[in-house]
Prior knowledge:
527 residues; alpha+beta; two-stranded antiparallel ribbon; 5 helices
Amino acid sequence: MAAPARRKTILGAALATLLCSAAPSAMAQAVSTANGGVTGISQEQLLALIGRLDALERRNDELEQQILDLKAQGAASDQSIRDQVNATTVSLANGRPTFATADGAFTASLRGIVQLDAAHYDQRSPGPPATDFRRGSVGDAAEAERARDLADGANFRRVRFGVEGKAFADWNYNLLFDFGGSGVEEGGKITNAYVEYAGLQPLRFRVGAFAPVTGLEDATSNTASLFPERAAAAELVRGLAGGDGRTGAAVLANGERWSFGGYVTGNTIGVSSFDEQLGAIVRATYTPHKTLDSVLHLGANANFIINPAASAADIAPAGSPTQVRLRERPELRVDATRLVDTGAIDADGLRALGLEAGYQWKAFSIQGEHFWIDVERRNSALADPDFSGWYVQGAWTITGEPRRYNAANGGFDSPKVENPFKLGSGNWGVWELAARYSVLDLNHDAGAAGTAPLAAAIRGGEQKILTLGLNWYVNNNVRFLADYQRVEVDRLSPGGTAFGVGALTPPAGVQIGQDLNIWSFRTQYAF
């Protein structure tokens, strides 16, 4: 109530008191005076009016107190909301530490991968290089020795640690470092270091260092793959313009049944050249059939080396050599020796086209890819060489859990472990049988055994591998893989000094490939 009105009410109450005790004549005069000269108001009427004013005053006081209470509650509520927005939550879902604000606009998840491989290479006993013609990479004297006696032992294939998450709701980031390696552990290298804008769905825009998805096999995480390594053909194509730690920019998109990725790439981190390679990758997938129990995947991919890396300044009349090289290991990296290798090809560019298909029905899955690789020679009248590779692989989950399909990547993922192993509980995790057959042909016009190669010939060799595997997913973090591989390499010597001088290079046309068996075991922990 305003101050003047409150004062008027008090005066009215005082006046009523005086009126009650005064003589009638004096009261009449007081009434006449109090009402500004207006007469004819009885004592009862005046007292009733004063009573109503007092009731209004009390009601006004109650309303004022309610307003003050509501303001206090509002301030407390605002502070509570601010506290909730600014609060940080911590979770350990599947053993992965994750920090997030209450509104989810900022997150940070720690990532870790440890993969320890052990292997035994069962091959014919080595002989001297003059009579034992098995060889590895072209121009590598050390591999010429190792190919005849591949090293048994153990190797940390991957030891990765990093953090991933998002900022301001629309920005994703990933920082990941790897201390593992092929044949020998490395001192540490960048695997991922990128930022991605995801505020214009379904599009995402990424820039930095990362592993572009080059095909169906590459779309499966290395922690969820059926075997320790990808099929040779898929791994070779992956390394052309993709692979871990590849610098580049990408436009990505996906829906419930489709995905698309377009990439422009440079060198991988740690690889130096005078002028960096310029590459490009395009991949599209579609799932024409999808139910609760099954999914059919179809896809196509194209990997390009637009400008191969230059080995020196481009100042000579013929330009600096820009070389591409195709070679691959026998789908295991405890020993890093490659058994098929084209050697360096002076090239203007390279194109690799691939088709992919996969099908999953309940506990069964099967997938395959075929790649065609064409190299464009530089400053040469010789025919351009072409190569190819393919694989088919399948799996059956003995315990019944299905492999999952990831629409965002357009690939298959590992089964979810609903009943993790615990001794005495009757739960044994997930058990899975897997098989694969792969072919990688790096020959071009190789010619017949016992003959010298033609001028345009490339004798890179043909590698065929049959792999059988048993996988045990103990829980969603721990996994064991036991594998057997039958490796058959058919490769003719190019002669000359391809592997070095003297006995290091076998006579042209002799068999320098080999057949061998590999037994391997992987221990994995990932979060």
